[in-house]
User: Fold these one by one.
Assistant:
Number 1:
Amino acid sequence: MGIGGRRWNGWGLGGERFPVAATARAWLSERVGDGTPLPMIDEADVTVPPARPLPDLPCALARDRSARLRCACGLSLPDLVALRAGAIAAFPDAVAFPTSPAEVAALVHAADASGVALIPRGGGTSVVGGVTVRPLAKPTVVLSLERLHGLLALDCISRLATFAAGTLGPELEVALAPHSLRLGHEPQSFEFSTLGGWIATRSAGQRSTGVGKIDDLVAGLEIATPAGVWRLPPQPASAAGPEPRRLLLGGEGRLGVITEATVRVRPVPELEDGVGVVLPGWEAGVAVCRSLVQDGVPVEVMRLSDPNETAFGTALTRLSSWQRRALRLLGMLTRSEHGCLLLLGWAGGAQEVVLARARAAALWRSHRGVSLGSSPYRHWRRDRFRHPYLRDELLGAGWGVDTVETATPWVKVSDVRVAVSDALRAAGAAAGFAVAVLCHLSHAYRDGASLYFTFLWPLRSGAELTHWQLLKAAATHALLARGGTLSHHHGVGTMHASYLEREIGATGVTAVRALVAALDPHGTLNPGVLLSGDGA
Ligand SMILES: Cc1cc2nc3c(=O)[nH]c(=O)nc-3n(C[C@H](O)[C@H](O)[C@H](O)COP(=O)(O)OP(=O)(O)OC[C@H]3O[C@@H](n4cnc5c(N)ncnc54)[C@H](O)[C@@H]3O)c2cc1C
């Protein structure tokens, strides 16, 4: 436990857990076998080398062991393996806690002038190495946005709210609630990630089918760069040349430090409800999802699990006896069957919700879908922010677990799912172990959707990282080869930097490099992130 009660080497709060149900353990054992639990050393036993000397910087700095350890890593699988083993590649020489945009700007300027690298850090929940400290020749300071938080301005007429960049998800929604407003951006990391982090990574929340990605929600922002402070006030739309707000989204701390942002907010809905529907197969589920968005049926949450994810989810959850009967009827509790669970959620006026649900029901029935009622949706809503605790439990029980995510046009959705799943299983088989691959479709658009893969494998002592690397590379190559995007919402970080050119081309990389060079000519901000071979 530490700052705010958060774990130093895993997800969330020290007292919280989400144990792996015996049925889920059995499901995994049967499919991939048992592995070697990943041990976890005590925080006190981690060797933290002395910090290097730093020039005078105009900001409060923490240089103690605990602050440096807690800001050394993010939450990717390699981060977790390193933290649990106490084998951390590099530590920051200090952690800076600026308390105002002016202090951020002064710090960025001073660091740039004195050859210090800065790693902007929001909630530290990056799963792609975005905040992992690299061994750099320059002294390195983590710039924590922790003390820049809260609602700064609210324009109820335009429905625009300005927040400091370090505001965490719950604080943001709590500040809007008295005005009967909400943002509705709820990534699974909601409790511990920040507005600045969401913008810097182009994050997507679980309601994105209805409310959009953070890209759609940001109306204006302010960013401190070595080249100066760049303020882009909110505009509903503009034709004043290329759109610089969009250009700064996904900067991952490489283009500057976001100090505040104005977001588009909406009224708190009168009613929220949802349903779980079982479809007789993946293709039927995809057809329902596509028709819903293309026919303009309002849906806020849409999440279609493939048969493996449906079966694993069922093994994790306690279902009522009639739900079990319904699932068994569809044959989905056995491995050979193909039932897929679709969760749909609505938020709005009572009448709107009833109408949207009726339109959706007509669609799922036309694809032989069977409703399980509201309770699967309510269960999912209740537990969704607890699911991340499972990852630590699984590692401690001997199973590696990681995710890759992408998006692709509808015409390629099924092909990408098969290609990535096959590539993961084949990579495991070639190295002598089995891999379970779960997939869901979420974040649907008129022209396509995101696919999110979770892969699990038995850990072998000493080979945790090499096996993970094999799997991660196989999945990434497969999704790129089949026309998926490198990332729909986790971002590039250091982990995907070498693949960026495959997605945006050599000209695209040249343009991004030029933008970085214009804003940060000395490579002060987050070197090594976004662009490979860049500083680290
Ligand atoms: C369990 C779990 C579940 C997750 N679920 C989701 C999900 O549902 N959807 C999703 O999109 N992502 C998800 N993520 C990934 C992660 O939470 C997101 O990328 C999130 O947007 C990161 O926010 P953060 O505040 O933690 O940023 P950090 O991890 O601190 O930083 C991420 C990147 O942004 C940069 N950065 C952070 N703040 C600023 C700033 N103010 N100015 C400039 N650069 C900055 C950092 O330098 C880094 O490159 C999940 C991660 C975990 C561990």
Number 2:
Amino acid sequence: MGEQLGTLEELPQDYRDDMTAAGVAPLWPMMRNVLPHGAPNPVTRPGHWSYAAVRPLLLRAGELTPVEKAERRVLVLSDPGRGAGAMQATASIYLGLQLLLPGETAPAHVHTPSAVRIVVEGTGGYTVVDGEKLPMEEGDLVLTPGGEWHDHGHEGTEPVVWLDALDLPLFVYLEGSYATEGPLQAQRNRPDASQVEYLSSGLAPSRKLGAGPRRYPMMRYPWGRTEAALNEMAAYTDGDCAELDYVNPETGADVLPTMGFTAMRIGAGQRHAPPLRSSSAAFHVVKGQGKTTINGETIEWGPKDTFTAPVFAEITHEAGEDAYLVRVHDRPLQEKLGYYEERAR
Ligand SMILES: [Fe+2]
């Protein structure tokens, strides 16, 4: 334990050359890189994207690039640890800010990764998933699970912007990422399931004999209800942050296979210091302002900002005014792989 391992430089050059020619390499000089002691050594660094800074760039993209030339008009939020252009915000989470202008549509497609949209601004936008038209109001969380057809449209008069969160990096790593395109979907003539079958928490449509729970029964989580639930809960949390997980209303399971979502309310003047988690996280500020220290680095955030934290980060949030955040994390993936962990600070 703790013994210094041999280096490549210690080996004779002819042996190194012969290994290269044979297509092999010694493990021991590289072992600590892939198996560090005690905890992972993340490449991901804390990131912060001020909406005030990104919004004008996004609107300019609306002038420079018609949606037909972009399919999805998105500015990707690149992890500072991987540098500009990185198609990921943490090891497993991709984030992008997407702009749709009035009258535009984003064509229908289906792909292997799963996505969630968190609506940042604007009204009149909608997503159609498997024929269900999902209105997009500020703060709403809209699911487009892998394997489900989806397209977007905009019936309003002002730009609509949402934050996309995908498990894309995982699918790219697995060489399993691809999409199929198709025509815009016919929309069912009825409100979405959050307004019909799952209007009240604790109530689900009566089950027919032999019908099992559905994997994705509800694709839209309206923000108004989430905020109301957080406010009720906050009255009884003894000064700590109120948190609610987004779950499948039929089973209580995570809403997507690899990504989890938690709504948080941190009251004005409150401080929230969660345990160290093995999951990485992205925080999207729906409302409010405050600051968060991540591994000693302080981020001052305001409404509609997004920031990220690597695995096992020491995170302390402090709200300057009542703040509502959505935390995107990869705990469901880690639980499936059997290694999700929390450690005391
Ligand atoms: Fe998509």
